[in-house]
């Protein structure tokens, strides 16, 4: 299986309380496994507050819904041994 790398990493975002914010990370291969999103070192799951999806096979997205002050911190994306943070 090829080593999946990060082609385009996360970008820092500034958002107002109550708004949604979307982070995108592009990887080198489609159908990447061993992918993880974290906020402040806490693994995120796909639920009503966090929408995790993949667009066009290679663009992994995380949307945080109606952010609050508690959501301030580092968002990280990991695929295999490669990471990106914002």
From TrEMBL:
Cellular location(s): Cytoplasm
The answer to whether the entry has keyword Disulfide bond is yes
- Keywords assigned by UniProt, alphabetized: Cytoplasm, Disulfide bond, Phosphoprotein
Q: Name one GO cellular component term.
A: cytoplasm
Instruction: Note the SUPFAM superfamilies from the entry.
Output: Immunoglobulin
Q: What is its main location?
A: cytoplasm
Keyword Phosphoprotein annotated: yes
Q: Looking at the Swiss-Prot or TrEMBL record, what is one Pfam family this protein matches?
A: I-set
Database matches in InterPro entries: Ig-like_dom, Ig-like_dom_sf, Ig-like_fold, Ig_I-set, Obscurin/Obscurin-like_Reg
Q: Residues in domain Ig-like?
A: 2-86
Q: Which PANTHER family match?
A: OBSCURIN, SI:DKEY-31G6.6
Name listed for the protein in its UniProt record: OBSCN protein
Q: Give the species.
A: Grantiella picta
């Amino acid at each position: 299986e090829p080593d999946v790398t990060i082609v385009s990493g996360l970008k820092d975002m500034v958002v107002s309380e109550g708004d949604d914010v979307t982070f995108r990370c592009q990887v080198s291969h489609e159908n990447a496994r061993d992918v993880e999103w974290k906020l402040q070192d806490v693994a995120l799951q796909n639920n009503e507050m966090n929408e995790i999806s993949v667009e066009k096979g290679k663009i992994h997205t995380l949307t945080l819904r109606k952010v609050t002050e508690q959501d301030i911190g580092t968002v990280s994306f990991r695929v295999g041994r490669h990471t990106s943070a914002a």
